[in-house]
Structures are given as structure tokens and as C-alpha cells.
Write a structure and sequence with these properties.
The protein is mainly beta and about 190 residues long. About 5% of the residues lie in helices and about 40% in strands.
């Protein structure tokens, strides 16, 4: 699966913004509380598992960054998903992104083969390394051309927590070794 994330002109601008928000699991965001004159520290843990009961997904999560071509890395195994660790952790403000395979070779089932079946209101869950679970609800689904600028998937900053799921879809093209479109499921964190 290939997803063109950045045009050449936007690559360094968006990469700079992404890096500003996250340097991996060791970065803590410190906000000054002007009323109490103290710091508030957010420490969302590394995501370990993605669970989507409505389509029978229960997958472990691996970390990925950018490939040498400026594309988001993808999981090595068709049964796993990958979290774009240059962006927010699932549960932090901003748009966390998780990718998974569709239509694996030799008819081997892939984790996101049924992602297209999700609908608005469906819930999914992220479990961190401590066993804490964050709940997300599907808000919408959008399809992209593989060559489209999909940077909006990564850079929404409305002070809310989002999780976007990405996979391939459509017809396999042997010449390009890619599918004809990308499917993105947009979700929002359910606040307790």
C-alpha cells in the first residue's frame, strides 16, 4: 500500500509541523496554567492494540515514520496495523493516524479488508501498554486518489483528539503495484 502524503513543496513544511507536535513517545507537552501558576503534563502512552468489534479487528500496533519517498510506512505483516509515530499518540489532541493492509497477496486475510463496512457511529478502541483503553467513534469515511495530496489526514489541529484509519481499496494495478484508491475512516475520541 502506498499513500502519497506530501507534495514536494509541502513535505518540509508539514514535516516541520509534525515534528513540532511530536518527537516520539518520549516527548511530553507542557502547558502553563495561568490561574494556578503550575504546569500540566500530558503523557499518553504508546498504543499497543487496535480493536474494532463491528468488523472483527483485534490487531497489534507497530510504530512507523516516513519512507525515503516521503510516504507513511506500513505494517510488515497483513494482520497488524501501523501508527504514524511522527504525529500525535491516539488520545492526544490532533490527528493520530493508523494504517493497515487490504487485499493481501494469495488471498491471505488482511486487517483492514472490511474497513469499508464501518459506518458513522461505530466504535473502535485503542489499548496502551498499561492496558488503558481510549474509545473513538466513526465520524465519516472518505476516498482518495493514490496521488492526491492527503496531508489533511495528518494535520487537523482543532484542539480535539482524532484517530484516522487508512487502507487501500479498489482495483489492483500490477504495473504500479498499488490499488486504485485509498480509504480513510475519520474518528473522534469519546470523552469520558
Amino acid at each position: 500500500m502506498k499513500l502519497i502524503i506530501f507534495s514536494k513543496q509541502r513535505f518540509f513544511l508539514i514535516l516541520g509541523v509534525v515534528l513540532l507536535f511530536s518527537f516520539g513517545p518520549f516527548l511530553y507537552f507542557i502547558f502553563a496554567n495561568s490561574n494556578k501558576n503550575e504546569a500540566i503534563i500530558s503523557s499518553v502512552e504508546k498504543p499497543m492494540y487496535l480493536k474494532i468489534p463491528s468488523i472483527n479487528v483485534d490487531a497489534s500496533i507497530e510504530n512507523v515514520g516516513l519512507t525515503s519517498l516521503g510516504e507513511m510506512g506500513v505494517p510488515k505483516d497483513p494482520s497488524r496495523v501501523s501508527w504514524f509515530d511522527l504525529g500525535p499518540h491516539p488520545g492526544e489532541n490532533g490527528s493520530a493516524v493508523i494504517a493497515g493492509h487490504y487485499g493481501w497477496k494469495d488471498n491471505v486475510p488482511a486487517v483492514f479488508d472490511n474497513l469499508y463496512k464501518l459506518k458513522k457511529g461505530d466504535k473502535l478502541y485503542i489499548e496502551d501498554k498499561n492496558g488503558a483503553t481510549s474509545t473513538f467513534v466513526v465520524q465519516g469515511i472518505k476516498r482518495y486518489d493514490p496521488k492526491a495530496d492527503a496531508s489533511e489526514i495528518f494535520n487537523l489541529d482543532d484542539k480535539k483528539s482524532h484517530l484516522n484509519l487508512i487502507t487501500c481499496e479498489g482495483t489492483w494495478n500490477k504495473a504500479t503495484q498499488s490499488y486504485s484508491s485509498r480509504l480513510v475512516v475519520f474518528t473522534d475520541k469519546v470523552e469520558k
